[in-house]
Every structure is written in structure tokens, then in C-alpha cells.
Design brief:
There is one protein chain. By secondary structure, the protein is of the alpha/beta class. 32% of the residues lie in helices and 23% in strands. It has 3 domains: 2-139 and 260-321, FAD/NAD(P)-binding domain, CATH 3.50.50; 152-257, FAD/NAD(P)-binding domain; 341-445, Enolase-like, domain 1 (2-Layer Sandwich), CATH 3.30.390. It has helices at residues 13-24, 39-43, 46-65, 73-102, 175-186, 206-218, 307-321, 350-355, 371-375, 404-416, 421-425, 436-445, and strands at residues 2-9, 29-33, 105-108, 111-115, 118-121, 125-134, 138-140, 152-154, 167-171, 190-194, 222-224, 231-234, 239-243, 246-250, 252-255, 259-261, 294-296, 335-337, 343-347, 360-366, 382-388, 394-400. Strands 1, 2, 3, 4, 5, 6 and 17 form a 7-stranded mixed sheet that branches. A 5-stranded parallel sheet has the order 8-15-9-10-11. It has a 5-stranded antiparallel sheet with strand order 18-19-22-21-20, sandwiched between helices. α1 (13-24) packs parallel to α7.
Length: 461
């Protein structure tokens, strides 16, 4: 049996970050991967989807400006998918190189615990370590009503399409459903989104949701909320589904109703690791499971299913193993939805602030008043800042529009460091840039933005 200081199970962003951090701290490290190095994020999630979103957005923009000069998207689709795969492969190769050069040993196969300090790979080779980190992530949920067939897709199988659909039904109006709806509509696909809840994107600031719905309407995306899909059947040329007693037809149906934890085949009982009723691994504030030498990070814990959260947890777990860490908190972690327009948030929404009985002020600044946005034909966007009424401390920020995912970085720092709206407003931004919207919005919290009409106070006689 080969012995290591740390074994990491899973090589997604959380897993490979943990392995690299362990190697940096001179710990003998093994990483185990049952599929492709890089996990879902690099192979079927973040990178392929953002490549498709980028390519689709560029196509839609050029199509709008030069409608007679571009071929139909269906002709370009195989090349677009090929580029998504090439970019994913390049990044996976980069991760493999980083791990190898850091001295991390890589083993491919399915890991299962045999004790709190040992795992067996493919029922053949056993490895042991003083500490083990579980980073096995999640998989798409496929509801029982869905039949099996090439016309039924999820967020992983969609990358194996051989053709661009003329129409698609998307089951679920969460982040994955909305991102793929936006991208496919940009390529000219007729998209219908079915969402059981009263609103898409639960938990996202209502003004950002409203901005996305306007964009969906402009793209002719049919958005059906409070609409459950009751039945699905395959036809000779596609799928037929019913919702609320009405029939709908599409070339394909894509399920985007959530993800389930990859914990079932780990034989966690042999190690004594406990899961919640949904199968997510229980952890404490130090990323430790119910077994002190076993840690869990990323999506498998059910804590903010985001790649950057997993990476941060990976570092935290390793540092706690070495005794140099501290408590991990999901407070102040940003989230980005890569639709067109992009949506980005950090900290509290207005609804969350109200629920906590916090008195707050808000500032809003539209991209239409931003020189750079007007110059780049991107005036449809806005920044919104929520600040504590008494102190002025920024509690949350929400952005819709071009470069929202980049802009949120500055606001994340502001929330993490407890900066006030006045301090952000005093920050000098380069002109003309999208960053100017941040300082102007911060000034707008106290009615000090000179780029907006001033709200004049009534004079006392």
C-alpha cells in the first residue's frame, strides 16, 4: 500500500487547487480522478458553456450589423463545438502539467473508502493518507418523467450534439437553463423555457431578473413560469411535451433542473463520513467532515455550487490540515450568470436585507449614462448598490450588462473589506470605462452622482 500525506478525490477546480496547495506546502499528494482531469468545470461546465456563450454572442452581434455577410449559424455550429472542445482540452492539459510539475501523483479510477485513512481504486489498488479531501462534485438531475434517447439532453450531453437544433425546450429556469437559453437563442434557435416556480433565477436580485427577462423577450425566448412539464414523449423528429394541458413540440429537450451529489459510490460508511438527506457531505466551518482527518470541498458539500467557491475551499482545507487555516465562510463570494446580458451579484439582495430587518439605502446607475457603454452599443445595463443606512457600509452589489462579471470583482472587495459607499464613490475610475458606473452608483446612494439628475431637496421657508 502506497502512503501519502494527502489524498484528493476528484480533480475539478476544488480538487486540483487543493492538490497544488498541498504540494506547495511540501505534502506528498495523490489526486484521483474517475473521469477527465479538470472535472465538470473544464470539460462539460464552465469552460465549454462560456465558449459557446461567447461564440454565440459574437455571432449575434455580427449578424445584427452585417446580416447579409454571415452564413447561417447551423453551418458554423460544428466548428463552434469543436472550438469549445479544443479550449477545454488545452486547459485540462495545463492542469495536468501543473500537477505533474508540482510533484502530485495522478491516478485514474473510481475511489472507494476502505477505512478513514485509506481508499481503493477500481477495487484493485489501495492507497493510504493521514488526510483525505473529497472533491467529487455533482451530476445533472434527470427527472423520472424523461425518456431515454438522443433527443433528451442535459448540461453535459449537450456538447455532443451533431447539429444545431431549430428548436429546443429547456426544463428549468435556473442558472444553467438561462445561460444555455441565451446562447442558443443568439444562434437563432427557437427556445422555450419551462420553470415550475413563479420566477426564474430564485435568489437573484429582482431588478437583474427583470433585465434578463427583457433581453429574453428581445431574443424571442418563450419563458413559461409556474409551468411544470407533465409528460414527455419522443417523436420521429423530436419531442412532444405537455404542460398545463397544452402540447409543445421541439427538436430536443434539455433538462436543467438541478444537480445531485456524487457521493453514492465512495463507500463513505467505511470511513464514518455522514451525508445529509440529499446525499451532500456534512462539513463544519473548517471544511472537515464528521471524521476529523477527512475533508470535503466544493459542490459535494452543497455550499454554493460555484467553481471559485470550490477552489477557495480547497485552499482552506489544506491550510486547516497544516494548522495554518481558519474558518471558511461563503459570505462575500460573488456569483455571475453568463447570459447576455451578464448578471453579477455579491452580498445581500434587497429581499435578504429586509428579511434581516436591516435599514438600507440603494443607489442605481444605468449603463445608458455611461460613455463607454454608449460607445460600444451596450447601454442596456445597470449597477445597483445596497448600503447600510447608518454606516454607509456596502452590503451588496448587483450588476446587469456587459462586463458585469468583471465589474463585480471590485464590489466583492468592497463588501469583504467593509467599505462604505462614500469610499467607493471617492475612488477615481479611468475614463471612459465601465468601472465609472461603480463610483457613480456609489455616489447615487447618497444622491451625489453628478451623472444623474439630482433629487433636489425642498427649501424651508
Amino acid at each position: 500500500m502506497k502512503i501519502f500525506d494527502v489524498i484528493v478525490i476528484g480533480s475539478g477546480p476544488g480538487g486540483y487547487t487543493a492538490a497544488l496547495e498541498a504540494a506547495r506546502l511540501n505534502l506528498a499528494t495523490l489526486i484521483i480522478e474517475s473521469g477527465q482531469l479538470g472535472g465538470v468545470c473544464l470539460n462539460t461546465g464552465c469552460i465549454p458553456s462560456k465558449t459557446l456563450i461567447y461564440e454565440a454572442g459574437e455571432y449575434a452581434l455580427l449578424r445584427k450589423k452585417f446580416p447579409a455577410s454571415l452564413p447561417e449559424a447551423a453551418l458554423l455550429f460544428p466548428e463552434i463545438l469543436s472550438r469549445t472542445q479544443a479550449k477545454a482540452a488545452a486547459l485540462c492539459s495545463g492542469v495536468e502539467s501543473l500537477l505533474s510539475r508540482a510533484g502530485v501523483e495522478i491516478v485514474y479510477g473510481k475511489a472507494a473508502f476502505t477505512s478513514p485513512k485509506s481508499v481503493i481504486i477500481n477495487d484493485e489498488t489501495e492507497y493510504s493518507a493521514e488526510n483525505i479531501i473529497i472533491a467529487t462534485g455533482t451530476s445533472p438531475v434527470m427527472p423520472d418523467i424523461l425518456p431515454s434517447g438522443a433527443r433528451i439532453l442535459n448540461s453535459e450531453s449537450v456538447w455532443h450534439l451533431s447539429e444545431l437544433p431549430s428548436s429546443i425546450a429547456i426544463m428549468g429556469g435556473g442558472v444553467i437553463g438561462c445561460e444555455l437559453a441565451s446562447a442558443l437563442a443568439d444562434l437563432g434557435v427557437k427556445v422555450t423555457v419551462f420553470e415550475m416556480a413563479e420566477e426564474i433565477l430564485p435568489g437573484v436580485d429582482h431588478e437583474l431578473v427583470r433585465a434578463l427577462k427583457r433581453a429574453f423577450e428581445a431574443k424571442s425566448i418563450q419563458l413559461l413560469t409556474s409551468s411544470a412539464i407533465d409528460t414527455v414523449e419522443l417523436t420521429a423528429s423530436g419531442v412532444k411535451l405537455t404542460s398545463g394541458g397544452q402540447d409543445y413540440f421541439a427538436d430536443y429537450l434539455l433538462s436543467a433542473v438541478g444537480r445531485k451529489p456524487n457521493s453514492g459510490e465512495l463507500n463513505l460508511e467505511a470511513a464514518g463520513v455522514e451525508c445529509d438527506r440529499r446525499g451532500f457531505i456534512k462539513i463544519d466551518e473548517f471544511c472537515r467532515t464528521t471524521v476529523p482527518n477527512i475533508y470535503a470541498i466544493g459542490d459535494i458539500t452543497g455550499k454554493m455550487l460555484l467553481a471559485h467557491t470550490a477552489s477557495a475551499m480547497g485552499k482552506s482545507a489544506v491550510r486547516n490540515i497544516t494548522g495554518s487555516g481558519k474558518e471558511f465562510s461563503t459570505d462575500g463570494i460573488p456569483a455571475v450568470i453568463f447570459t447576455h446580458p451578464e448578471l453579477a451579484s455579491v452580498g445581500l439582495t434587497e429581499n435578504a436585507a429586509k428579511a434581516q430587518n436591516i435599514h438600507y439605502n440603494t443607489g442605481r446607475f444605468p449603463f445608458a449614462a455611461l460613455g463607454r457603454a454608449v460607445a460600444e452599443d451596450a447601454p442596456d445595463g445597470m449597477v445597483k448598490i445596497i448600503a447600510e443606512e447608518d454606516s454607509g457600509r456596502i452590503l451588496g452589489a448587483h450588476i446587469a450588462g456587459k462586463n458585469a462579471g468583471e465589474l463585480i470583482a471590485a464590489m466583492t472587495l468592497a463588501v469583504k473589506k467593509g467599505l462604505t459607499a462614500a469610499e467607493v464613490g471617492e475612488t477615481i475610475q479611468a475614463h471612459p470605462t465601465y468601472g465609472e458606473a461603480l463610483s457613480e452608483c456609489a455616489d447615487a446612494v447618497d444622491n451625489r452622482s453628478l451623472a444623474l439628475p439630482l433629487r433636489r431637496k425642498k427649501m424651508q421657508k
